[in-house]
Amino acid sequence: MGTLGFWRLAEKDPDWIAAVDPDGTEHRAGDLLARANKLVHALRGLGLEKGDGVTALVPNGVDGLVVYLAALQAGWYYTPINWHLTGPEIGYIVADAEAKAFLVHERFADLGVAGADAADLDPRRRISFGKVSGFTPFEDFTRDAPGTLPEDRSNGAAMHYTSGTTGRPKGVKRKLAGIDPDDSAELMTFLLSFFKYTPGRPVTGQHEAHLVTSPNYHTAVTQFGGSSLHMGHTLVYMDKWEAEDTLRLIEKHEITNTHMVPTHFKRLLTLPEETRAKYDTSSMKQAIHAAAPCPVPIKHQMIEWWGMCVWEYYAATEGGGTVASPEDWLAHPGTVGSKWPISELLIVDEDFNEVPAGTPGTIYMKMMGVEFEYKGDLEKTKKERLRDYFTVGDIGYLTEEGFLFLSDRKSDMIISGGANIYPAEIENEIILHPKVADVAVFGIPNEEWGEEIKAVIEPAAGVEPGAALSEEIFEFLKPRLAKMKWPRTIDYTESLPREPNGKLLKRKLRDPYWAGRSTAI
Question: Of 168, 171, 327, 335, which is least surrounded by CB within 10 A?
Answer without folding.
Answer: 327
